Amino acid sequence: MKRLKSLDTFRGLAMLYMIVGHMITWWPVPEIKLILMSSYISILSTLGAVGFTFISGISTMISYRNRLIKVDKNENYRFTQVKYEYLFRAVFIVILGLIYNIFVAILYMDPSEIWGWFILLTLGVCLLMSWPLLKRSKIFRILVGVLIWIINQILLIVLIPYKGQFNLFGILYHILYNPIDQNIILSFFTFFLIGTVIGDVIYDISLIDNDLEKRKTVKSKLLIPSLLIGTILIVVGFNFLLPLLFTEAMLSIKSNIWWLMYSLGIEVILISVFITIDIYEFFKPEKSYKFLYYFSYYSLTVFLLQNINYFFFYQSLHFYNIWFFILIMVIIYYLFLRFSYNKWGPKLSLKIQIGRLAAGATKWVMNKSNYK
User: Positive or negative, the Cα torsion across 175, 176, 178, 183?
Assistant: First the structure.
């Protein structure tokens, strides 16, 4: 299918939010950190790890559907190969996530962080959990996502009294909810799963050759349903979320069912609007697209790279200068990524290299199987 700029724009926005969000977490002096973080999360939290997980679900389904077409058209490319490539990619991301967590544990001198739901581990586990569901219907995946959120709320109520205890329930709490303010799997897997549903719809729309028919379909099958469902989720979620906005409670909001509903509503509406603009070609923002495209293309690379920001101005900036340094840092990242794209292309893209590594591992496994 034709590459949609809206998907890169969406992913680029999510990555940009995470970069800025980490600088707001690390750089302000303690006196202003709480108000900055709670304000930033209250206003833009639905764009960060939530958006990245959601768009990863969309991209995963589009990639999966593309590979199924390749299986149908190429007798040398089998479904087994699709499966191995997918699972190897997921496992490699999980391993990368655990390595990242080890560095976090060393930095904070806290061994419990080795198993922590930072975005890389969450994304890898989402990929593993979603594989058995990719062939199932869209309705089934939606129902599974809703059921997981319900189970999540029940488990959290049952397990939270055992936090920090070395017993069965305490260990289970650590596995599912450590740390509670990060991208816990039972909250974020539903975003990924709903993303695969949207990815299915987008892929079906992309198969339509007639532009007029494609525009009608994106309006009736994606935009209108997304606006309706998304608005309901936003209104209901925001109604219960309102008392928590701009308070310390926002710092650990990612297990709150109302925030989850509110965030999902925003994600669904945003992506449907972006896709509609893309399909209708209302305007072609090439320059702004390129700015976000680099953050999307190098998403995993830049996520790891931006951790060096921790050491630059740790707890030393104030209201009057933090935004200046954040702006300068974003510009530096943009210039570096643009230079890297023009100079080295995919060589510096961790996402692409993981895909190549997964393809190589798949080839090795299949050659061994054929040899036996």
Answer: positive
Rounded CA-CA distance 134/22 in Å is 33
**Structure token digits, residue 48:** 């960060």
Please check whether residue 90 is in contact with residue 17, taking contact to mean a CB–CB distance below 8 angstroms.
no
Sign, CA dihedral 218-224-225-227, equals positive
Chain segment 201-216, per-residue pLDDT in tens: 999 998 888 889 989 9
Q: Are 38 and 247 in contact (CB under 8 A)?
A: yes
User: Residue 180 has which token pair?
Assistant: 């509670």
Contact 21, 250 (CB under 8 A): no
CA dihedral 276, 278, 280, 283 (to 10 degrees): 120
CA distance 264 to 235: 12
Per-residue pLDDT, 35: 87
Q: Let me know: does 54 contact 271? Beta carbons within 8 Å.
A: yes
**What pLDDT was estimated at residue 74?**
72
Taking the C-alpha atoms of residue 356 and residue 124, their distance in angstroms, rounded to an integer, is 16
Q: What is the spatial distance between Cα 150 and Cα 308, in angstroms, rounded to a whole number?
A: 38
Angle at which helices 257-280 and 224-241 cross, to 10°? 150
Measured over the CA atoms of residue 131, residue 135, residue 136 and residue 137, the dihedral's sign is positive
Q: Which residues face 26 on adjacent strands?
A: none
Amino acid letter for position 123: L
Q: How many C-beta atoms lie closer than 10 Å to residue 46's C-beta?
A: 23
Angle at the Cα of 307 from the Cα atoms of 304 and 310, rounded to 5 degrees: 180
Supply 280's token pair.
């209708």
Compute the distance between CA of residue 44 and CA of residue 352 in angstroms, rounded to an integer: 28
Alpha carbons 345 and 266: distance in angstroms, whole number: 33
Residue type, 252: S
Residues in contact with 89: Cβ distance below 8 Å, sequence separation at least 6, in sequence order: 127, 354, 355, 358
- Give the CA-trace dihedral at 263, 162, 103, 93, to 10 degrees: -50
Q: What is the pLDDT of residues 56-99, one digit of tens each?
A: 999 999 999 998 888 877 767 788 889 999 999 999 999 999 99
